[in-house]
Amino acid sequence: MSETGAAARPRIAIDCGQTGARVRITEPGGAEPTVVELAGVRTDHPVVPQVAEIAEHALNGVTLPGSELAAGVSGLTPGATRPDELLVACAALGVSRVALAHDSVTSFLAANRLEPGAVVAAGTGVVTLGVGSATAKVDGWGMFGDAGSGYWIGRAGVDAALRAFDGRGPATTLTGLAQAEFGPLPEIYMVVQGDPLRVRRTAGFARVVASAADAGDAEAGRIIDAAAAELAVSVGAALRGAGWQPGGAWRVSWMGKVLTTNPRLQTRFRELVTAAHPGVTTGDPYGIPLDGASLLLDLPDGHPIARLVAYAGR
To answer: What pTM value is reported for the model?
Structure first.
């Protein structure tokens, strides 16, 4: 669909992460879009009904006849990608067309538009997507992966704290910081294990690890540097899988707070990526995830990334 055609219809763009969801509602006529922030999706539950619920809450009783809805969703597996189901669930809102994709796709579009390259979407979890002559998604394996993510960093920080507490590892300020965050260390595993928000809570400790690294804690610094290395390895796999060859002038960017709010990690990540991949450049993202979600509705026919988007309606 052309930009002109898209502008004639109301548009609901949704960025669904595990920590939170953002919805941007754009109506014809040039009025300022409305942006609503809501709770994120739980990836251990079916995600399509949650997307429909997020749209309903964002519209707050308003219907938008003929509208288009585009969503990038964390934890969206191929088997759970059901655009027809989402269209039916949102019909009462006036939605007549939907586009549904994994949030790695919307992250790529937000970060790189249609340029060949890769994006690292690193928040609570992490997934990397390469797009060139082909597409390649790397990691995003949740409890079995997400290397370099906020959860990965937070968990590594607690592990370092407990190792120091036991005498199995070097002394670190993370020991006291973990106790301040989670309570007495002898109780920590039971407290966190019993918390339904344990993944989000553990990921939140990544900010503490980053601050400790900036303050000179060696163990915290080791964790941050290791996270940068993990993310750079994932980028390399995604670039090769998407068809990059040495010397190819492809672009690597990022989404998510892990890289946008941590200068040490971002600097090390950029160094590792460019050193290992001649011709590749790194750059700040062109836009935000909501921009990427909206672009799902405007992809040119035949572009490789369009194969990663599921549509329903017209």
So the answer is: 0.88
| Predicted pLDDT of residue 142 | 86
- One domain, residues 18 and 154: no
Q: Per residue in 15-34, pLDDT tens?
A: 998 778 999 999 988 789 99
- Token pair of 42 as six digits: 């739980």
- Tell me which residue range forms the domain holding 200: 114-285
Beta bridge partners of 101: 72
DSSP 313: E
Q: What is the dihedral of CA 152, 141, 291, 11, to 10 degrees?
A: -130
- Rounded to 5 degrees, φ, ψ at 26 are -120, 130
Q: How many residues does the chain have?
A: 314
Question: Could you tell me the CA-to-CA distances from 18 to 21, 86, 127, 143, 151 in Å, in that order?
Answer: 8, 19, 13, 13, 11
Q: Cβ of 305: how many Cβ atoms within 10 Å?
A: 19
From 24, 7, 28, 6, select the one nearest 15 (Cα to Cα): 24
Strands 20-26 and 34-39, by their bridges, are: antiparallel
Do 130 and 183 belong together in one domain? yes
Across the chain, the runs of DSSP E, i.e. the strands, are 11-16, 20-26, 34-39, 67-73, 95-102, 117-122, 126-131, 135-139, 251-255, 281-282, 310-313
Residues 6+ apart with CB under 8 A from 214: 264
- Structure tokens that stand for 57 in this block: 């809450």
Same domain, 168 and 94: no
